[in-house]
Amino acid sequence: MVEEKLHALRGILVSVIINEPPIGFEKQSSFLKTIDIIEGRHLRILQLFRSRMGCVGGEQFVGFSEICETFKAKNESDTELVYSALDTLANREFIQTGPIPLDKAGNLLKTRQVWRATKLGAEFLDFVRMPPENARRNGGSSDKRGYQR
Q: What would the pLDDT profile of 40-50 be if each residue is shown by its tens digit?
């Protein structure tokens, strides 16, 4: 919701002022444009994916059903919002899909599709100073940059 976006905008100001993480002007501009078009659900989904980045193999991927369960998307309009957020994040190259699940006719099985965060997605979250989703929910201790562990 609005809280996540406000947090991200504050984080951008801090990142630009102290230049940490140090990134180039073009990437900063791209990230600023991105924060203008995305919403809180995009940030929360990306945080969920980043929380899996240290995992090995298939554990780093998050499936559609897990995303819907985490964000309580139960009806068709809620799931369409999740798909829309995933499309936006993928178009920005902040996430990428895993192996494409197909049925016997060769059609995409959307409900079995999986995604993971990219390095660029993690850089974006660092730039806007968003902690990993699991740290935020579990109330862990803060590190030197103010992220919760």
A: 899 999 999 99
